[in-house]
Protein 1
Amino acid sequence: MSDCIFCKIVAGELPAKVVYENDQLLAFPTIEPKADTHLLVIPKKHTENLNTLTADDADMIAHLMTTLPKIAASAGLTGYRTITNTGAEGGQEVFHMHFHILGGDQLPGF
Ligand code: AMP
Ligand code: ZN
């Protein structure tokens, strides 16, 4: 989507300190960290959030979920929290699906 900031990061039109990339995914630190380590993992293909996934996205979401631990490990994390916010009422601000990886210090219980 042309007005999506994460699509612009994928296209190289906005800067990001990419820490992991493959043909399907990109990971980079958030600009507003809520933990010592706070990364965002996004699919390169635009989809708004979990609500807009279709059966065609099954391979992509499986790949994303199985790659999250590798990205966390490459950031030096052994324990971490993953969050995806869905919809405005779920706290979503950027409507390009993304998973937060938070860690690097002891997180409070949830
Ligand atoms: P959410 O509230 O789940 O939609 O999370 C959006 C995340 O994107 C927040 O952590 C923001 O700080 C982060 N964010 C917004 N713009 C950028 C950007 N240009 N580069 C990196 N992170 C961003
Ligand atoms: Zn997008």
Protein 2
Amino acid sequence: MKLHINENHKLSHIEPEVYGHFSEHLGRCIYGGLFVGEDSEIPNVKGMRADVVEALKEMKIPVLRWPGGNFADEYHWMEGIGPKENRKKMINTHWGGVIEDNSFGTHEYFELCKQLGCKTYVNGNVGSGTVREMSEWVEYMTFNGVSPMAELRKANGQEEAWKVDYFGVGNENWGCGGNMTAEYYGNKFRNYQTYIRQYDGNAPISKICCGANADDYDWTADVLKTCFYKPAPPQAHGFMDGLSLHYYVVVNNWEHKGSATEFSKEEYYRCMKKAYYMDELVTRHDAIMSQYDPDKKIGMMVDEWGCWHDVEPGTNPGFLYQQNSMRDAQVAGATLNIFNKHSDRVKMGCLAQIVNVLQAVILTEDDKMVLTPTYYVLHMYRFHQDADLLDSYLEGANETGVEGEKCKKVNESVSVDKDGVLTITLNNVSEAEDETVTIDFRDREVGAVEGIILNGKVDDYNSFEAPNKVQEKNFAVTECKGKEIELTLPACSLVTLRVTLK
Ligand code: AHR
């Protein structure tokens, strides 16, 4: 197989947010995962787990979406501010029927993002909230002048307004967020977004409209028909800066999704085939968006993606706690390569969810923490953040799989960073066969190459008993000569190369 790279042809910019994450008040994502409270014996800084924060910083988390998900359209932000003992307790009806004590609220979220050094993405409540409630939340968070909400924030100990980078106007409003039709939601969006005031002209809030579930192309078309608005100069922004897309890889079906760690070859390849389907979804939604927005000013925000397996046996079904194997790592690697290739339109991706829920990068149990194979993928791909996508093409690409479940054997993407260093992420999906790849640069000779690899059996995973079974390691290419590099990708491997050209 040959990978051709045209190092002279930059295609689009890869926004760091493409490597973003999602946190919801669900199971042990927030409570126990990210936040343990200041009185916990687990080492913490202002209640945030120190080990988790450090690991996420090392992974270079660019943005964190909060508070949901389904939870967002039932969240009333005022219940999560002020002295903790006065905060209302509520039942988390979506997720396990447990008591939500609101001890993690707006102030705690901004503290967490400050510690992580990442951008903020707050998701508002359209399903069961009011325009006023949403508008006042934005005022509370972002207004620095004199106003009832700014005064309330100050009284609660936060003098300076925070920066809200992204604000989501509802979540999955076609389903759990209110069961709305596209036209009804589109009109609601027009209304609600009006009151997301841009209090600080130097720190505009990007407004995200609720987009489709998977292949619901009608939703994309109908929502845009209802609420797309092209700004007239000197206005810089229309009604929306982003349109979301949600897509989960469910191996079998929603009733019997399949185990996270025990699966057949057939299920493995079906999973990969479903991961590759992201390419078609993005392409087709992009085509509809381009009918309104040919200059691609509106970002496609894939703010929920990942594998959704059966919960681990014996755990609360409402907590969506699942293990994470090399199969999940392959799904992450393929998906992120797809996002890179579509970075002219895909401006954000949020893996669902960051800790202890669905395809998590981190699992915790009391004071113990495990980095999942997916964590290492995000860590190895961090070099793509803020880089420019380069033109690349795989010649002789063949298929792998079993009868009825075939998919592309190797996937890749290539970018160049501000210092001129190339990042090549190249994955061999086959669970059984190695693959030799020659990388051919167009005009320049290869200077230095550094490699990192993540590999193992497709069902290998890290547990609390064996936390380091799957880990990234250094990787050596076979040969480097003139304008070419030759390497062998072992079966089920993900390789990142950092290449300097002469
Ligand atoms: O991530 C779990 C749930 O999946 C989210 O709450 C919801 O938006 C989606 O259906």
